[in-house]
Amino acid sequence: MFAKKTVTRITKVNYFDFRFHFYGARFRINILLALSLSIRYLLQLHKLHFQEKDKMITAGNFHKLRILRIDHSGAWLEAEDQEILLPRKECPAEIAPGVEVEVFIYVDRNQQILATRKKPVAKVGEFALLQVTSIGPHGAFLDWGIGKDLLAPFNEQTQKMLEGRRYLVRILHDKQQRPIASSKIDRFLLAENHDLTQGDEVEVIIWAFTDLGAKVIINNTYEGLIYQTDLPPHLKKGDLITAYVGRVRDDGKLDVVLHRTGAAGRDDAREVLLDALTTSGFLPLHDQSPPELIRSRLGLSKKAFKKATGMLYKEGFIELTHQGIKLLKK
Fold first, then answer.
1. What's phi and psi for 262, nearest 5 deg?
2. Cα separation of 232 and 255, whole Å?
């Protein structure tokens, strides 16, 4: 009898214990689902916020605006709750109310918001190499291609800017939403990659030269490196070029190459070599040529040059001599 009661009690305890754990697990799952949905909802709101921000009329960006009216000053454009003037001298020949025009919005010396059809070197969120035209009481003024210079405040300069010199800067908004320039490049870049993979085509700006190679700005977002062995001699600070992600390192940092990797890269190198031979008929390059000479003539690494040479030789396009490579007529 005692044993039976004991068994019954144990059974009940286990049953209630099971129910506790079962409902506890369900509760935890529901909490996790709720958190997941909340995060997804917040990300959607975040995305919508930036989509709406992109639609806002902001100085330092391009906008497509409708002409409301035209007078002796020029065309007045509809911009949310205000009108923005496109000066008469910049109005297109065929112009009428209701027509849409693409313009760049900026702030003039009198703090008036104006429109222009001129194309700046860069817009807000981008980097560019700009020349200092003058120094004022609040900073340096840079020529960014629209007639009205861009201010680089003293507190946004890594070193004191000098008139006539060129500096790589990021264009951003100040607290009053006016476009300004900053040479403090590091603070605008991400050191770790979040969306690029090996082989991706990217746009890079040459930022600075070091013993390892060239530091670059990738897609206006990441910092990266082109190694010295891959650098052609003609590249300069501020150059904007197309490149490729050569490697994503374990720490998330990016190495960049100027030619595609893998089979696509071999095909590119083959075309570069064949084009050069088609032009000259002969190239004084061979296996013993210094890498620097190959790079200066073709823009290829010695490894890529040797692979391209091997491909063209097997295809019967070239003859290899002690003096160099001769194109065969086919």
1. 70, -155
2. 16
